[in-house]
Design brief:
By secondary structure, the chain is of the alpha/beta class. Helices cover 32% and strands 24% of the residues. Bound molecules: zinc ion.
Length: 435
């Protein structure tokens, strides 16, 4: 609690001082080392000129600095673009069985408590250097993400810029809550549809109410079969998926597709999904199809190492199989040069934990540190149709800038200790520079 209060003080103090200068004031950041989100190597001794919300120019250290510019000295630090997490659930508060698991999120918390927790989640995310999130459905909290986004945009609460997908879509038997007596009506974590007409209507409703993305589930239950292979239950039919992607694409929006493996994942690919979420176990032919179609891959490695059931239970076997095949598939995807974005599934992981824990795992599983950084910056921006606007430290881009003390190219875990955060030209955290 005390820690949270202190954080709030930091956030309000720094945001306030930046606003006081006025939006058109010039700020110049002196970067000891700059990883710009695009280039293959870091540049030394750079100056980043920030005016209002945008980066004006990036130059070598010899450039003249106007006398009235505010200086931020990050000459001892490595500066990077603000990070992008492409798979979060700001309305989910962990799934620890001891705390009631997933179900408690929907059954034990009213909408105000859930909004308060989401407010905590976005603040915590920003504090760790994430200036943009693609939040992939609210888990029963309706259109709450659209309103949290509005609260951030109007300056009521601190948080990353949000790309939201509202309710999510699956079919009957294709999502929690489940396992209750059939006589009892329980809420569902997503909007349930059956048939292409209902599927298309759900997309229209969600886009009408402010969804930036559509999130669908094409697999649901998973288990290990007699041969020890992971199996997942397909949900939406190809016909339903095609109705969804056709409608969303007509609005200029994209479809994120939760898929573990097998038939469901194949339908997602054949149905024209834009990103595969998790993709725990992808066959070589499916990886080839993704490369051909330009499908984005958003692995979520760390969440599958959380909360394993005991080894000798069916759930325990499933939990271990999911992590093992995910590593194998991730390694294949890196080799195949799929378009990979950084995703954590935070919310499935309690928000008190680190949002950066996937970086070391991606590098451990064969990704170059610079590619892991690009997965969370320029690559993700490209998926979000924000190329050049987000995920880069370059002229014209939004001034979303972070810094760490060490060199994340040598030690990727450095990203777990972000000490400076600027979003839209406003400083939200500064534990490095004298100002
Ligand atoms: Zn998720």
């Amino acid at each position: 609690m005390r820690k949270a209060m202190k954080l709030l003080a930091i956030l309000s103090c720094c945001a306030g001082s930046a606003y006081a200068q006025g939006p058109a004031a010039l700020t110049v950041i002196r970067a000891g080392s700059l990883i710009d989100g695009q280039a293959d190597t870091a540049k030394k001794d750079q100056l980043i000129f920030v005016r209002g919300k945008r980066i004006e120019k990036v130059t070598g250290s010899g450039t003249e600095i106007p006398a009235d510019a505010r200086m931020i000295d990050l000459s001892s630090a490595t500066v990077l673009p603000g990070l992008i997490d492409s798979h979060t659930h700001i309305f989910l508060w962990g799934e620890d069985p001891a705390l009631g698991g997933y179900d408690a999120n929907l059954l034990k918390a009213g909408i105000a408590l859930r909004a308060a927790r989401a407010t905590y989640a976005v603040k915590r995310s920003l504090e760790q250097g994430f200036t943009t999130l693609r939040d992939v459905e609210t888990e029963g909290a309706g259109y709450g993400d659209v309103e949290i986004k509005q609260a951030i945009e109007e300056g009521t609460i601190p948080g990353p810029r949000l790309f939201v997908s509202t309710r999510g879509i699956s079919s009957t038997g294709g999502y929690n809550l489940e396992g209750y007596a059939p006589e009892i009506t329980v809420p569902k974590g997503v909007q349930i549809v059956d048939g292409p007409v209902e599927a298309r209507k759900a997309v229209r409703e969600q886009l009408d109410h402010g969804a930036d993305w559509i999130k669908i589930y094409v697999t649901h239950r998973s288990w290990v079969d007699r041969e020890g292979r992971l199996v997942s239950q397909p949900t939406l039919t190809l016909e339903e998926i095609k109705a969804i992607t056709d409608e969303a694409h007509g609005w200029g929006k994209k479809v994120a597709c939760h898929a573990y493996n097998g038939i469901g994942l194949q339908r997602g690919l054949d149905g024209g999904c834009d990103s595969i979420e998790h993709g725990l176990d992808m066959a070589d032919a499916q990886i080839e199809q993704m490369a051909r179609q330009g499908t984005w891959y958003c692995p979520t490695l760390s969440v599958y190492y959380d909360d394993w059931s005991p080894m000798d239970t069916p759930e325990g076997k499933r939990d271990r199989a999911r992590a093992a095949v995910h590593e194998f598939t991730f390694r294949k995807a890196v080799k195949a040069r799929l378009k990979i974005v950084y995703g954590t599934d935070m919310g499935g992981i309690p928000w008190q934990q680190s949002e950066t824990q996937d970086f070391p795992r991606m590098v451990e599983f064969g990704m170059a540190p610079m590619d892991a950084i690009r997965a969370a910056t320029s690559r993700a921006a490209e998926m979000l149709d924000e190329k050049g606007e987000l995920g880069v430290v370059a002229p014209g881009a939004f001034a979303d800038i972070i810094a760490v003390s060490g060199d994340p190219l040598k030690e990727i875990a450095e990203l777990g200790n972000v000490k400076f955060v600027m979003k839209d030209g406003v400083v939200y955290r500064n534990q490095i520079a004298a100002r």
